[in-house]
């Protein structure tokens, strides 16, 4: 599905059950794509819980760029994408998420788009080597989400690991770095359990 925005077209890869219980929208990291192992694990958890799942390639990536540009521009394009997807799936809860830069985006825009929860994979707490520079911390973005946030990070992530006090639930996977490319089943299981807690209405879905 192509989604036009003021900043170019986005691409949404859809998995559509007949009667979705909620809408799960996921996106990539700054220079990545929507087929990473961790995003696919979250996709499967969503499908098992009865979600319609959209994996979104943002306009800048669809246009061939590797950097998202200004947060304001990225957030504005994302809000247009979510508006289009919500019109396709009206009347059901929205959960959004992403990995790395996409996790930051999902947190920043959660309230603006009416999301009920956020899945943040490999949230980049600070640039590598900048853990001791408070002004470089992205923790305020986590706190700004305003809805329950699940963070899944690896304990070897050079971008750091958020503080558990800043999120609804923090899962730290041993031996994993920023890519979160190993143990996809652990990611899927963690997301499944969390979805049952934050969306009790879908807990009876298969999965």
CATH class: Alpha Beta
Instruction: From the alpha carbons, calculate the radius of gyration and give it in angstroms.
Output: 16 Å
Secondary structure: number of strands? 8
Task: Give a short account of the largest sheet.
Answer: 8 strands, mixed
Overall mean confidence score, pLDDT: 95
- How much of the sequence is in beta strands? 15-25%
Low-pLDDT segments: none
| CATH fold title | Rossmann fold
Cross-sheet strand order for the largest sheet: 1-2-4-3-5-6-7-8
Pairing-aware structural class of the strands and helices?
alpha/beta
Supply the number of structural domains.
1
> Percent range for helical residues?
25-40%
* Name of the CATH architecture: 3-Layer(aba) Sandwich
* Principal-axis shape: globular
Q: Work out the helix count.
A: 6
Q: What separation lies between the terminal Cα atoms?
A: 26 Å
CATH superfamily membership, which one? Alpha/Beta hydrolase fold, catalytic domain
- SSE ordering: EEEHEHHEHEHEEH
Q: Short summary of the structure?
A:
The chain has one domain: Alpha/Beta hydrolase fold, catalytic domain (Rossmann fold, 3-Layer(aba) Sandwich).
Give the topology, please.
Elements: E1 2-5, E2 8-15, E3 22-27, H1 37-48, E4 51-57, H2 59-62, H3 71-88, E5 94-99, H4 101-113, E6 117-121, H5 139-143, E7 149-154, E8 169-173, H6 184-198
Walk me through what this model shows.
The chain is an alpha/beta fold and 207 residues long. It has one domain (2-202): Rossmann fold, CATH 3.40.50. 32% of the residues lie in helices and 23% in strands. The protein has six helices and eight strands; from the N terminus they run βββαβααβαβαββα. The protein has helices spanning 37-48, 59-62, 71-88, 101-113, 139-143, 184-198; strands at 2-5, 8-15, 22-27, 51-57, 94-99, 117-121, 149-154, 169-173. Strands 1-2-4-3-5-6-7-8 form an eight-stranded mixed β-sheet, with helices on both faces. The protein starts with a strand and ends in a 9-residue tail after the last helix. 46% of the residues are buried.
């Amino acid at each position: 599905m192509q989604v036009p925005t003021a900043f170019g077209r986005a691409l949404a890869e859809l998995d559509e059950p007949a009667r979705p219980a909620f809408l799960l929208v996921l996106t990539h990291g700054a220079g990545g794509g929507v087929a990473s192992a961790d995003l696919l694990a979250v996709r499967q958890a969503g499908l098992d819980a009865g979600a319609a799942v959209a994996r979104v390639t943002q306009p800048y990536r669809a246009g061939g760029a590797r950097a998202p540009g200004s947060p304001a521009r990225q957030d504005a394009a994302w809000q247009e994408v979510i508006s289009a997807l919500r019109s396709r799936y009206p009347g059901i809860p929205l959960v959004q998420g992403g990995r790395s830069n996409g996790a930051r985006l999902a947190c920043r825009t959660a309230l603006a788009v009416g999301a009920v929860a956020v899945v943040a994979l490999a949230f980049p707490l600070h640039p590598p080597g900048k853990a001791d520079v408070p002004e470089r911390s992205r923790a305020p973005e986590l706190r700004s989400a305003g809805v329950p946030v699940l963070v899944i990070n690896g304990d070897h992530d050079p971008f750091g690991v958020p503080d558990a006090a800043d999120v609804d639930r923090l899962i730290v996977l041993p031996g994993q770095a920023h890519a979160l490319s190993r143990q996809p089943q652990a990611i899927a299981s963690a997301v499944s359990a969390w979805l049952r807690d934050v969306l009790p209405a879908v807990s009876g879905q298969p999965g």
